[in-house]
Amino acid sequence: MASNVNATHVKSQSSRLPRKRFYRARAHSNPLSDSHFPIPISPAEFDYSHHYPHFFPSSREHHKNDGAPFPKVKFADIGCGFGGLLVGLSPLFPDTLMLGMELRDKVTEYVKERILALRASNPGQYENISVVRTNSMKYLPNYFEKAQLSKMFFLFPDPHFKEKNHRRRVISIQLLDEYAYALELGGIIYTVTDVEELGDWMRSCLEDHPLFEPVPDEELEADPVVKLLISATEEGQKVARNGGQTFRAVYRRIKLEEL
Amino acid sequence: MGEEAEFVAGDGEEVASTAADVENELIEEEKNKDGEVSPAIIAVHPYEKSVAVAVGSELRLFDLEGDCSVSLIDDSGGSPHTDSIRAIKFGANGRLFASAGDDKLVKIWVTNPWRCIWTVPADKRVSAVAISHSGHYVAFADKFGVVWLIEIDEEKVQQLKFDSKPVPILGHYCSIITRLDFSADDRFIVSADRDFKIRVTVFPKEPLNGAHEIQSFCLGHTDFVSCLAFVCPFGHANGFLLSGSGDSTVRLWDFVSGTLLATCEVRAKAGQSQSNGPDTYSPVTDLCASFDGSIIVAALQNLHGVVLLNCDFPNGNLSVAKVVSFEETYFPTSLVLSSSTQRLWMIMGASNLPMVGTTHLPTRLKVISVPEKDPSLNYRHDPVVLEDNEIPGGQKLLSELQGTPDITQEEATLAAAAAAVKLSMRSMMIKKEYNLEKREMRKKNRNDRKAR
Q1: For the whole model, what pTM was predicted?
Q2: Which residues lie below 8 Å from residue B25, measured CB to CB, with a gap of 6+?
Q3: B161-196 pLDDT, tens per residue?
Q4: In which element (H, E) is residue B308 found?
Q5: How many C-beta atoms surround the C-beta of residue A106 within 10 A?
Q6: Does A34 contact B214 at a Cβ distance shorter than 8 Å?
């Protein structure tokens, strides 16, 4: 025990959780503007060892020789914000790789630091979560292969009230095509918002899309992830604090039925 | 960054620029935007019955069968094209033809006899069109990345009654779609964009409800994708996809799985054969291939010639077979191969030349006769660049499609065209990066610029 305390003390410099106030950022970022951050050319170019060193202890080549299949990211949190959901999910699915995607530079920095600090203070834990700064509306196929993901999260996305800006919404019929591509059959897409109008919008997009069907309520009751949607996320906590309402739509990727 | 800044500003004096300079640059930039230049494009009837050339808002047609030019008859009640035409295409059997461009009009034509049957208004500027091989659908894509579909109902064609509106069927998220095409069996619709992506979408039986199932993404290009071509060599039922890009490569894909099979660094290979060599930045501007893939031809922006490629399909090898060079002022802007005659048609020209005050738009057309290959994929003879009088349709066709009876008078205009097209392609396709000062200035002037 004593040695443990000592160890954390030594590491305290790096393991202290980052403080949000040093990572203040604008609430919004324009998803339409040209991006100038690096993007993998294809999913094969995405460097897992850098994000999940615990799962990729040596170089990728070494693993290839083993013949053992690579673990791949299965959960994607689109617009992960300050990373609350990832941190909440990580101990629930310790062997599942999860990736948060966030467009705002500073927020991504914060999540990065937060994960590193959590890893340092809880050895062996939080090794399965990571974050990238990217525009998932433009570059999702650059990160994930077809049918790679089993869960996708869209929690408290930007509402973009003006009709002119509806095309900036992260859930749309056209973008759902890409999400359906990245999700495996049976994979689940979780959306939640505190804005009723956006809730209706997201639900109707999913409802109208031929590749998704609603997940029945009883299944949602049993799903441990559903509780985290609000309790784990910073935005969700804020809504709960203010006694606000939330609107949830959870859908499953299905096979296209052609008549 | 340096290069781009230079391009945007028109000079390299970035450091010393004052706020006023930045302001002026911005105004200059706005002006250039209005004068956006579009390259001349060419299309040939699948049985070489007619040839179409579009330059600026002008559509020029020549009927090779009747050996006469074609006047544009418009039964659709729509207006003629009023701005640069960006895409023209014949349907697989040559019965239909579509033209579309910056004036947000898609015009659908029947070719026998030539007349426009339908003018479809689009929401945004149109950047690509495709006609399904069945001839039942025309798809077009706009600069905001949305692909729209219209159904061509035979009955309606007869009665000229078109009441349906185009339906959006898929979207690339706010990326300019550069090319659009149907696979040979109409099972897939393929769209390429400026964000390096090629999307292969299942073309459903009821496509008007949207094409939601993505078959694959072909990812590998490191710059905008500029052109696509399908090939169906014997023994490969699904066929393959070829793509050209701003990264100066041509790539071969198994588009059903999205696997990259081969990459050919065309610029590096072709550059050696021309003494001055193409510029370091030399995007592939156009690509065409015969149905079986035995002939593959690519054009590069800074290459005064075309590159013939060889593809060894079983092994997935793509290599440069030959470079055909022209005089040093000839840079083709668009290519098309007539499979039936193995003739490669190409055009050079541009619209809206800012510095040349001419009202007419000269283009220069050339034709190459591509020889047969022997079993080891070598050409039996050298490809022959036809003399003007050897071109089908001869002088009559040339004076119609080139827009001038004597193209030799137009050297200077054509040279200007080559330069302008180069600049324009970059400004459209390349992501702009602004320094802080310029960005602030742009923000400041965001909404009130139109009022000036």
Answers
A1: 0.88
A2: B8, B9, B10, B17, B438
A3: 777 899 999 999 889 999 999 999 999 999 999 999
A4: strand B305-312
A5: 14
A6: no
Residue B410: strand, helix, or coil: helix
Supply the angle between the helices A224-231 and A234-241 in degrees, to the nearest 10: 70
Token pair recorded at residue B273: 């054969």
Length of chain B: 452
Confidence at residue B301, expressed as pLDDT on a 0 to 100 scale: 87
In this structure, are residues B14 and B5 in contact, taking their beta carbons and an 8 Å threshold?
A: yes
Question: Does A135 carry a binding-site annotation?
Answer: yes
The answer to whether B195 and B168 have CB atoms below 8 angstroms apart is no
Residue B60 corresponds to which tokens in the numbers above? 């020029």
Say what the ipTM of the complex is: 0.88
Phi, psi of B294 (to 5 degrees): -70, -25
Any idea where the domains of chain B sit in the sequence? 37-430
* CB-based contact A34 B217, cutoff 8 Å: no
- Domain A69-253 class? alpha beta
Token code pair at residue B264: 């050919």
Contacts of B57 (CB under 8 A, 6+ apart): B80, B81, B82, B83, B84, B85, B101, B103, B351
Q: Is A258 annotated as a binding residue?
A: no
Alpha helices in chain A (DSSP H): 2-15, 48-51, 60-66, 84-89, 105-121, 136-143, 173-182, 196-208, 217-222, 224-231, 234-241
Q: What is the pLDDT of residues A120-131, one digit of tens each?
A: 999 999 999 999
Which residues are paired to B121 by β-bridges? B105
pLDDT of residue B334: 95
Alpha helix stretches (DSSP H) within B12-57: 19-34
**pLDDT for the residue numbered B449:** 46
Residue A203 and residue A218: Cα distance in Å, rounded? 18
Domain ranges of chain A: 69-253
- CATH code at B37-430: 2.130.10.10
Q: How far apart are CA A14 and CA B241, in angstroms?
A: 50
Half-sphere exposure of B309 (CA within 13 A, CB side): 35
Shortest distance, CA A181 to any CA of chain B (angstroms): 6
User: Of B146, B212, B221, which has the smallest distance from its Cβ to A210's Cβ?
Assistant: B212
B209 touches chain A (CB under 8 A): yes
